Amino acid sequence: MTEYLDVVIVGAGLSGIGAAYRLQTTCPGKSYAILENRPDMGGTWDLFRYPGIRSDSDMFTLGYPFKPWRDAKAIADGSAILRYIEETAAENGIDRSIRYRTKVIAADWSGETARWTLTLEVGDESGAVERREIECGFLYTCAGYYNYEHGHTPEFPGAATFSGQIVHPQFWPEDLDYTGKRVVVIGSGATAVTLLPSMAEDTSMVTMLQRSPTWISAVPSRDKTADKLRELLPANLAHRLIRGKNILTNIAIYQYCRHWPAAARKMLTAQTTRILGDEKLVAEHFTPRYNPWDQRLCAAPGADFFKAIKKGKAQVVTDQIETFVPEGIRLKSGRVLEADVIITATGLDMLAFGGITLRVDGDPVKVSDQYVWEGTMLTGVPNFGICVGYTNASWTLRSDLTSRMVCRVLNYMDHNGIAAVVPQPEGPITERPLLDLASGYIQRAIDQFPRQGTRTPWRMRQNYLLDTLATMNTDLGRTLRATPRSAVAKPVPVA
After folding, report:
1. Distance CA 388, CA 464 (A)
2. How far apart (Å, rounded) are the C-alpha atoms in residues 354 and 359?
3. Is the pTM of this model over 0.85?
4. Residue 446 burial class via C-beta count within 10 angstroms: exposed 0-12, middle 13-18, buried 19 and up
5. How far apart are CA 290 and CA 267, in angstroms?
6. What is the pLDDT of residues 64-96, one digit of tens each?
7. Which segments of 27-68 does DSSP mark as H helices, in order?
8. Helices (H), 317-423
9. What's the CA gap between 372 and 378, in Å, rounded?
10. What cofactor is this protein dependent on (predicted)?
């Protein structure tokens, strides 16, 4: 018999484990499984192993609202985040519901039976892969938005002539020895900003090569207010207060940058100049053309990035690559950056919903033609939830809201005898990109993702407070088209 589950969650990362917790506690009668393509849980925090891998959001908001963050660092190392995810799964028995080495290739919806049939590739430790099928009533993808199998690496002229080693951070070699070597990191995003100070003490020189400057803000590595609250109050109460404080602070900073960009530029430039003590250096390498939060703001905990430069252990070069040469990289200016190791921190390759092929009653779904409803479901696709976090704040703030909404929809269906729901616009929707940032990795692939609108319930506001009010109070019957159970054929078991 083909196995049937009420809910299938795709992905056992930070979002997937959180989704399982919400499902267990809010919809306790539902059968479910988490299907994870990789051999371990953790998602991003298990995949990336490069030096210094860490969160770029504070852990009081990146962590779960139901599990207090107890470690000292507010901006946490990747290994600490992975332990936190593993602990959450073990404490709640979620780990027993994870099926590893299980990749969802395709999902076919039948309106006749109100079920998804999932085509899976199930592997084992030997590398053998077997195709299987399972069925479910609701499919919820928590697989993030980038491709785990390869990152974005441009075609660099002359790369084959380079005599050293070229590494992409997404696939960091365990045996890479860069001690005493000259390292060039291509890129200026969060990964490059993390790598530079983490490698500086062990290399002879580490250089961040950027095509244009990025906004980088020094932030405290520890939250002194949080430390005091955790010292004085019970863990759960302290966590709620710290989380609320940080949510409000982050919203205020984002809104300040968006509404008063000139003042925000001045504030960030002054901060960087105060740390480095060199106005010319700041003007050349740390004053971007774009405004803060047109792209995601990079964090430097404890100003580690700037301190490594000030100590002379690292440098930033702003120029364009002409070609790789045997000894390193020749720039458009004619300068040659000598290198033993080149790290291509050139960004992510985005992938919608883990690359699952969706079909509804035999017709392929063109995801980019659909609109997102309440940041949770798609038009044209019944009983299908998507988890997309915030771009301007901690991912988990939005992903947890989405999981709560999925559970709310499931309970609404049960209470009203509904077999299937699909978002249905009441009128025309004014289109906006789903991920509204100018970052290169987003712009390269935005046409592969669904769209959002400019008004509720089709808009993702990037504001946790407003989204919480909308998500938990929206009238589900107004914009969800429902199919009653009485209108659905009884599924025929498949041998």
Report:
1. 13
2. 15
3. yes
4. middle
5. 15
6. 999 999 998 899 999 999 999 999 999 999 999
7. 44-47, 59-62
8. 395-415
9. 5
10. FAD
- Joined tokens for residue 32: 């479910």
For 111, the 3-state DSSP assignment is coil
- Give yes or no for a contact between 169 and 151, defined as CB atoms under 8 angstroms apart: yes
Q: Which residue has the tokens 């100070």?
A: 197
For residues 149 and 171, what is the distance between their CA atoms, to the nearest angstrom?
A: 9
- Cα–Cα distance for residue pair 199/380, rounded to 1 Å: 48
Q: Assign 448 a pLDDT band (cuts: 50, 70, 90).
A: confident
Sorted by where each starts, the structural domains of the chain and their CATH numbers stand as 4-148+349-487 (3.50.50.60), 159-225+266-344 (3.50.50.60)
Residue 399 φ/ψ, nearest 5 degrees: -65, -35
Compute the average pLDDT of residues 214-230. 92
Assess contact for 368 and 433: CB atoms under 8 A. Answer: no
Q: At what angle do helices 235-259 and 224-232 cross, to 10 degrees?
A: 160
Q: HSE of 103 in the Cβ direction (CA atoms, 13 Å)?
A: 16
271-272-278 Cα angle (round to 5): 125
Dihedral sign, CA of 18, 22, 23, 28? positive
Rounded average pLDDT over 480-490: 90
Give the residue among 196, 188, 195 at the shortest CA–CA distance from 170.
Answer: 195
Query: Residue 305 and residue 446: Cα distance in Å, rounded?
Result: 30
**Per-residue tokens: 72:** 């000292």
Asked whether 77 and 86 are in contact (CB, 8 A), the reply is no
Residue type for position 174:
E
Tokens for 323, please give them.
């070609």
- Helix (H) / strand (E) element for 479: namely helix 476-479
Polymer length of the chain: 495
d(Cα 342, Cα 428) in Å, to the nearest integer? 49
Crossing angle between the packed helical segments 464-473 and 395-415, to the nearest 10 degrees: 10
Per-range mean pLDDT, top range of 132-141, 461-470, 479-488: 132-141
| pLDDT > 70 fraction of the chain, expressed in percent and rounded | 97
